[in-house]
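Dear colleague,

Thank you for sharing your sequence with our group. We've completed the structure prediction you requested, and as agreed, I am returning the results in plain text so they can be pasted directly into your records. Please verify that the sequence below matches your submission; if there's any discrepancy, let me know and we will rerun it promptly.
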Amino acid sequence: MPFAIVDKPNAKVYVFGAEGQFEGAAPVLLGLAKGDLSVPGVGSKPLSSIPPSERTTPAGRFVSAMGRNHKGKDILWLDYEQSLSMHAVVKGTAKDRRAERLASPTPLDNRISFGCINVPEDFFENVVINEFSGQGGIVYILPETKEFRRL
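Please find the predicted structure tokens below.
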């Protein structure tokens, strides 16, 4: 199966094909709050009611599959109950500057999402969709506050 490794401390994703071949890497936007666990029930809350402290990108191993979100857009579901996914960057509000954050040379400004992993649109379309369509795959999200074996 194809797999991806999300390096939270460096705000980067690496995608590998089913035979282990490197397919590409890209910067990512991550959850606003640092942390390696999701708050229980966060996936059932409306986005407007999720406080900044609960906007984490959890660490772990996720069996993932392509699907669609509530607006019909392609999305790689990592954990449906937590509403955790990888998708093309959304425009957001002008003050979010999401595209500029992805293009910046430092990962220090890549914390803006509600927990999802946002990637550049061309990377999502040309790498993620190509590798994960049909068979799905595995996404590993590396921890930033806990040891991986303790998750």
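Summary note from our side: Residues 100 and 109 are 9 Å apart (CA to CA).

Kind regards,
the structure core
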